[in-house]
């Protein structure tokens, strides 16, 4: 299938890894034809059901020593896991220079990984794979598997990463998991995680923009269409928006273990919530995570004023130029923020989930 190429043994010269795993070909599940009203489903839904059971794919670019080896992975405090399709080269370059820069700060290490599949066909796919391989040779920060990197395969991408994490970075303390078009104030993220009481990553944490009391979208032309053949229930468990969320290493491994007995759903953030619910765990809201954007209730104020972004954890979404500029503006030691006239909701991340109100410049 286009979305799920057959698994195969990988030739050594296509890898940047010391661990090669291969699986038998993942074949189409023809019993899907027996599902009620299967013939009336859109083609991409049929395709998903045919290959829903496929969870193992060849790894094209690997990072077995990214965390210093499994035994030394506790030295990584925060692992940034960024979903990025092959063609987003420019975004990856900007992130490496801004919030996703690997560094030792506040006494802890932050590391970066981009997770990717493949896109295009024939020559285009080959060219994009070469781009990733060149990036890998320079930055050593890409995990790539040989599956089609599409919206409906985002859950597969998450599970492949968690499987890799269990093998190579099982003791990392905390993770960010999100898209490559978000702005993350990693300075605040580290401070927030270090401020947690009695949790060094060995206990449950899953926080972000909490979404609850919603269910599957049954409109066939919607990007998020989930028919009853995929999800019978009309409600989803609570989950955090997939633009970006934060979790402990403990919770990441719990999700992976729960996923082994949970059928894949194409909506990856919902799937994470399903695995949490199965384990008896819940996600929580963090007021500093704005996956729906930051609301500025005045046309007289620049919505990209760095003073609004200096105290948050994450905002979705930014274009490349906006992201590059914002990172440098919030880190400018000469930045001065003055507030007057209009009260705006303002977040102090040093207080974790608390919020204050300040007077914002008119």
From TrEMBL:
One of its GO terms (cellular component) is Golgi membrane. Keywords: Glycoprotein, Glycosyltransferase, Golgi apparatus, Membrane, Signal-anchor, Transferase, Transmembrane, Transmembrane helix. Pathway: Protein modification. One of its GO terms (molecular function) is N-acetyl-beta-D-glucosaminide beta-(1,3)-galactosyltransferase activity. The keyword Transmembrane helix applies. Its main location: Golgi. GO terms for biological process: poly-N-acetyllactosamine biosynthetic process; protein O-linked glycosylation via N-acetyl-galactosamine. InterPro entries: Glyco_trans_31 (IPR002659). The keyword S-adenosyl-L-methionine does not apply. It is a single-pass type II membrane protein. Its EC number is 2.4.1.-. It holds the Pfam family Galactosyl_T. It is found in: Golgi apparatus membrane. PANTHER family: BETA-1,3-N-ACETYLGLUCOSAMINYLTRANSFERASE, N-ACETYLLACTOSAMINIDE BETA-1,3-N-ACETYLGLUCOSAMINYLTRANSFERASE 3. Belongs to the glycosyltransferase 31 family. This is Hexosyltransferase. It comes from Labrus bergylta (ballan wrasse).
